[in-house]
TrEMBL record:
GO terms for cellular component: cytosol. Monomer. Binds 30S ribosomal subunits, but not 50S ribosomal subunits or 70S ribosomes. One of several proteins that assist in the late maturation steps of the functional core of the 30S ribosomal subunit. Associates with free 30S ribosomal subunits (but not with 30S subunits that are part of 70S ribosomes or polysomes). Required for efficient processing of 16S rRNA. May interact with the 5'-terminal helix region of 16S rRNA. It comes from Herpetosiphon aurantiacus (strain ATCC 23779 / DSM 785 / 114-95). GO terms for molecular function: ribosomal small subunit binding. The lineage of its organism: Bacteria, Bacillati, Chloroflexota, Chloroflexia, Herpetosiphonales. It comes from the Bacteria. Belongs to the RbfA family. It is found in: Cytoplasm. This is Ribosome-binding factor A. Pfam families: RBFA.
Amino acid sequence: MAKNKRVEQVAEEIKTILSNAIQFEIQDPRLGFVTLTSVNVSPDLYHANINVSVMGDDTARKDSLATLDRAKGFLRRELGQQMKLRAVPELHFHLDVTIDTRQYMDTLFNQVDEERRVNPPKLDDE
């Protein structure tokens, strides 16, 4: 159990450090509005899967992910300077589409609600 707690602590620290580095240090104009949604670290702490949400269209998302991939060396160096780990994990960035899916589902539910308001369902008694 202690191992899992350590992995979770490392993941949270990585998320905090990377969030700050991405927001304040990377000056590339191709990097859009990026939010780190989660960080999952392998049990051996050698790999970190970072899920990111990017505001904008598909082009903005692709550009932002490519920019993050190019900045991996810089970001790993930042982690190495701020964390006390035997080895700095390899960073793997993934697009998190959870927010997009949620917005799409909200739109569908709103359409159903509007349809029910305009055409209320008929009960069997009527």
